[in-house]
Amino acid sequence: MSKKNESKLIVGLDIGTSKVLAIVGEVNAAGDVEIIGYGHHPATGMRKGVVANIEETVTAIQRAVEEAELMAGCQIYSVYAGIAGAHINSFNSHGVVAVRDSEVDANDVERVIESAKAVAIPNDQSILHVLPQEFIIDGQEGIRHPIGMNGIRLEANLHMVTASVSSEKNIEKCIRRCGLEVDDIILEQLASCESVLTNDEKELGVCLVDIGGGTTDIAVYAEGAVRHTAVIPVAGDQITNDIAIALRTPTASAEDLKRRYACALRQLAPSDESIEVQTVGDRPARKLSKQTLAEVVEPRVEELFELIKVDLRRNGFEHMIRSGVVLTGGSSKMEGMIELAEEIFHLPVRLGTPKYLGGLSEVVKNPIYSTGVGLVLFGHRNQSEPKKTAKSESKVSVLTERVKHWFQGNF
Questions:
Q1: Is the pLDDT of residue 317 over 50?
Q2: Which helix (DSSP H) or strand (DSSP E) does residue 28 occupy?
Q3: Is the pLDDT confidence value at 387 over 50?
Q4: Which CA distances in Å does 14 have to 22, 24, 58, 191, 335?
Q5: Which residues pair with 228 in a beta bridge?
Q6: Strand order, beta sheet including 125-137
Q7: Which of 13, 36, 217, 285 would disulfide-bridge 79, Cβ 3.0–4.6 Å?
Q8: Which candidate, 62, 159, 58, 44, places its Cα nearest to that of 403?
Q9: 3-state class of 184 per DSSP?
Q10: Which pLDDT score is estimated for 388?
Q11: Reported confidence tier of residue 409, pLDDT bands at 50, 70, 90
Q12: Helix (H) or strand (E) holding 23
């Protein structure tokens, strides 16, 4: 195994409900990242995005990482890990301070962000992300780079994401049990946005829907910033379960039927084409039409899209998604998904695949890799941020650089 420059490697680890995916990126001479390897393994120790069995999760991570190392010809030491699940909470916050010397500096930005962060958070939750949306100086809205501007009153709008402390620690424990360090833990739908959405969509307004195995994660961008994130507890596993119950077939067979033949819109499923359905026990297999399978799948997918629509309407973001909806994640590839989503949302809908173009681009240009590729791109964008190497390092400069790099990467 050839040894590559460790400092040039960026590894994304997508620990999902149905699979663990490791993607290795390498920074080339031009400063761009290229995907040089990947590995995946079924995840049997996860339930709805959270660790349910540490030993099984550790084994899945080890297998995925070993496969990625073999393909990339490198040794992996640290990863950017994704996190998801119903324990994720998010909200928008507002802060305001007086500008000290009539010109906004890094200290003023630090103070206004701290002011916005001064909200009550449950003891079992920790702050995962603080995402600036915009700054306001003396009533002038829409300012993205306030440092150096004159004013008396500085305000900030932020989107904050919190996660369960125990869920976050369990993910870290599983990764460290594999002999790896955690570079950062990133909300999975934000990683998917990094690889799937275009800047034009982020400016005009878009809703990303990442349909995984255990949960469906959504993120709303408008005017270049994250406005809303949420987790819907309905996803691919529920569709599989419905098929297993309705057709009286084992879960493994139901998953295979979903992946090979399922259609989310019954009008698109041919009634004259039949499929073989395995039965429970020693009973012989049965023949059913593809339309019968679609009649089982469509109500669950429709319910999912309706729940997303209700969430957007309840939180006041339905009118912001002017460019439409982007579907991604493993379950988004199902036939009829786009057409049914357009019927429900009354908006343009497209399938989101990683827009990354280097290295193994044709291999990873698939919705199942959106989060993994996004974690690599997220890590690459944050590489130039200053690292805390000493206790005396100024927190102000670190936070200021984070804000600057966040805006540079999104506007």
A1: yes
A2: none
A3: no
A4: 6, 12, 13, 10, 24
A5: 220
A6: 89-98, 153-164, 125-137, 140-143
A7: 13
A8: 159
A9: strand
A10: 39
A11: low
A12: strand 19-27
Residue 146, CB-side half-sphere exposure with 13 Å CA sphere: 34
Minimum mean pLDDT range among 50-54, 200-204, 282-286: 282-286
Q: What ranges in 90-164 are assigned the alpha helix state H?
A: 106-117
What pairs with residue 39 in β-bridges?
22
Residue ranges matching CATH 3.30.420.40 in the chain: 200-352
Q: How many CA atoms lie within 13 A of 16 on its CB side?
A: 33
User: What is the spatial distance between Cα 224 and Cα 199, in angstroms, rounded to a whole number?
Assistant: 7
Q: How far apart are CA 278 and CA 284, in angstroms?
A: 7
Place of tokens 């809303």: 228
Q: At residue 298, what is the residue type?
A: E
DSSP 198-260: -HHHHHH-EEEEEE-SS-EEEEEEETTEEEEEEEES--HHHHHHHHHHHHT--HHHHHHHHHH
Q: Please report which confidence band the pLDDT of residue 396 belongs to, taking 50, 70 and 90 as the band edges.
A: very low
In CATH terms, the fold of domain 88-162 is Dna Ligase; domain 1 (3.30.1490)
pLDDT tens-digit readout, 235-255: 999 999 999 999 999 999 999
User: What is the distance between the alpha carbons of residues 184 and 382, in angstroms, rounded to a whole number?
Assistant: 10
Round to whole Å and give the CA distance between 204 and 73: 41
pLDDT value of residue 31: 84
Cα distance between residue 165 and residue 87, in whole Å: 9
Residue carrying structure tokens 């109500």? 299
Phi, psi dihedrals of residue 369, rounded to the nearest 5°: -100, 5
- Cα 79 to Cα 11: distance, rounded to the nearest angstrom: 5
Mean pLDDT of 323-340: 95
In degrees, rounded to 5, the angle at the alpha carbon of residue 365 between the alpha carbons of residues 362 and 370 is: 150
Strand order in 349-351's β-sheet?
A: 225-232, 216-222, 206-211, 325-328, 349-351
Closest to 176 measured CA to CA, from 68, 62, 75, 84: 62
Nearest Cα to 398, choosing from 162, 195, 106, 158? Answer: 106
* Fold topology of 200-352: Nucleotidyltransferase; domain 5 (3.30.420)
Q: How far is CA 239 from the centre of its chain?
A: 20
| Measured distance CA(326)–CA(369) in Å, rounded | 15
Between the alpha carbon of residue 331 and those of residues 47, 184, 295, 349, the distances in Å are: 16, 26, 17, 15
Contact 323, 348 (CB under 8 A): yes
Residue span(s) of the chain under CATH 3.30.1490.110 come to 88-162
